[in-house]
Amino acid sequence: MKKRLLLILLFINFSAQAADMPGIPVFIDEMVSKHQFKREELQLAFKLSERRQDVIDAISTPATTKPWIEYRPNFINPQRISGGVQFWNKHARTLQRAEKIYGVPQEIIVGVLGVETMYGRNVGHYRALDALTTLAFDFPRRADFFRDELESYLLLAREQDFDLLSVQSSYAGALGIAQFMPSNFRRYAVDFNGNGKIDIMNEPVDAIGSVANYLRNFGWRKGEPVALLSKVEDVNRLGNISDSRPFVAWKEAGVTTVEKQKGTLPPAWLLDFTVESGKEYWLVFNNFNVIMRYNTSNFYAMSVYQLGDEVRHARQLDAKH
């Protein structure tokens, strides 16, 4: 018994040293003054939290630093496609309802959830308080952002009535099936199943509605394309491909879509991706940029789009057999 008590005390002391980073006492003062938190409860929570070097390591070397040819198979693969078909079939009515209310296609919602957490199977293995505390007080490049997110996490925990130390997250502190940062959880998560509680931690229906609501709030345009595979006649005629241009201007520069399009397309950017056969070109539109509000990476947004598209095709094939 004495040995076990000694181990607990050593753990608490170690955690106190790990979490005793400059700025925490001032932060606690602010939370007490600004939001009327109980000082002793926050002091205990931070005493039990840990500085996580693996969080610093993970955020310093994100997956998007890999080339596309290595990045893509992590998300567009048989496991995620079959998992997406199962998820879609199980929640077909909910996805239809989300598309009808928010205007976001079902395959995009499925693509986001598939890339983020494999449809809820992998919501992260870091304690949210540890991750956010580490980044708020020991990651100077984005300390202000994570300090705000830590504040939102404390408020969210109080609003949702969950234990600060019990919630798991990504290394960046993203939460639940939809992987919302705490501030976005508070702003955009919705009670889509109507049970009186917003729960994107455990309820896929709430996660589906919340993703659709998030994308709509960031400017999703119903009926407009996301990305179109394209052909380029002569790369020397392209100029700066990151410029937004009217579709007719791209045609004049020798860019055409692989599949013929009906009607007038909105302005677009051109992206190139290195694949096994060389360069692959995509015209991308406003809705592609909206997906990037989830994660500011072209690779991320294209993975969401392509995974959702693959799941949709696989589901259609299953329906024919």
Report on this structure.
Helices cover 54% and strands 8% of the residues. By secondary structure, it is an alpha+beta fold. It has a domain at 1-48. The strands form 2 sheets. Strands 4-3-6-5 form a 4-stranded antiparallel β-sheet. It has a two-stranded antiparallel sheet with strand order 1-2. Strand 5 and strand 6 form a beta hairpin. Helix 8 (106-117) packs across helix 15 (298-320) and helix 9 runs antiparallel to helix 10 (143-160). The chain is globular, with a radius of gyration of 22 Å. It starts with a helix and ends with a helix.
Strand content: 5-15%
Q: Biggest sheet, strands in spatial order?
A: 4-3-6-5
> What are the secondary-structure elements, in order, as H or E?
HHHHHHHHEHHEHHEHEEEHH
Give the mean pLDDT: 92
Give the overall shape: globular
Residues in helix, %? 40-55%
Q: Biggest β-sheet: count, sense, barrel? A: 4 strands, antiparallel
pLDDT below 50 for ≥5 consecutive residues: which ranges?
1-18
Question: What is the overall number of helices?
Answer: 15
CA-atom Rg in angstroms: 22 Å
End-to-end gap? 63 Å
What are the main properties of this structure?
single chain, 321 residues, alpha+beta, four-stranded antiparallel β-sheet, two-stranded antiparallel ribbon
Kindly summarize this structure in a few lines.
With 321 residues, the chain is an alpha+beta fold. Helix content is 54%, strand content 8%.
Helices and strands in order, then pairings?
Blueprint (H helix, E strand, L loop, with lengths): L1 H18 L4 H12 L3 H10 L4 H8 L7 H4 L6 H13 L1 H11 L3 H12 L8 E2 H11 L4 H18 L7 E2 L12 H7 L15 H14 L9 E6 L14 H6 L2 E3 L11 E7 L2 E7 L1 H6 L6 H23 L1
Antiparallel strand pairs: 1-2, 3-4, 3-6, 5-6
Helix pairs in contact: 2-3, 6-8, 6-15, 7-12, 8-12, 8-15, 9-10, 10-11
